[in-house]
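S2.1 Query sequence (Sugar ABC transporter permease)
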Amino acid sequence: MPNEAGGSALRGRRRSAEAAPNADVRRARRSARARNWSLFVLFTGPNILLILAFTYWPLISNVYYSTLNWRLGSSNATFAGLDNYVRFFTSPGGLEVWRITITFTLATVVGSMVIGLLVALVLNRRLPGRTIARTAIFAPYVLSGVGVGLVWLFIFDPNLGLLSHVFRFFGEASPQWFIDPDLALVMVIVVYVWKNLGYCAVVFLAGLQSIPNDLMEAAELDRAKPLTRFFRVTLPLLSPTVFFLTVTTILSSMQAFDLLRIMTPTGNGTNMIIFEVWLQSFGAYQRAGYSAAISVVLFLTMLVITSVQMRFVERKVHYA
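Output structure tokens follow.
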């Protein structure tokens, strides 16, 4: 019996000795976890508060305002339910806004990406002065849309503009770019593509320079022609770049505003969704509730387009 009692006491001391380091480890882990959470809250807390205050709270408020029949600055507002949405999707003006938005977005995205890819293919060659050419092509992208619009207003001026002299040289009168709605849309598409193709060219150039040279050399050894090498080797390896540019350029084109506002202040033929939001809220109408509904539609449209691209289009992307 004394031996059994002694053994039990010994095992108890061993368990106590083993439990003490484990308790210290747990306390150290809890302390480290608390310290990490404190640092996380300290560094991300202000940013999270700012995002909540200036992004999500306005978004939620905008959804609420879209259900009101309310003029900007008025103290009276009545609940309208979904009437603002129904009016936008059924009115001739709303359908015209959709037509212009789709036309402008498709033209600028395809134009910027195709011309940007061609420019990148040229700039990827060992040509004299290519560094200066790269800088010159990318420069318009970082310029202010207001400044770019003012310069191109002078170029498109039907009486004194640079293009008017070109048309007169060939014995033709300058088109009325600012009066004809269709020509006004063509005008802003040309300027927007010119301003943004440098961005596409630089991104495509980075993608081209990431393609391994041994693949191109192997294709050349197989006597593949230049077009075959481009469509069978270069373009598939550029699919991640194409996917990235498709997502970013669609989103930026649908939110183009400053250039359109400067070149066509009344939105004649160029009133895209984002322009219609401004016209309805801060223009002559001041229909804040209706404008809020249009902005919610714009947000949901971009969210759906991006989700579809991320869900389905990304499957076609070939990551080397």
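The chain has a mean pLDDT of 87. The two ends are 74 Å apart (CA to CA).
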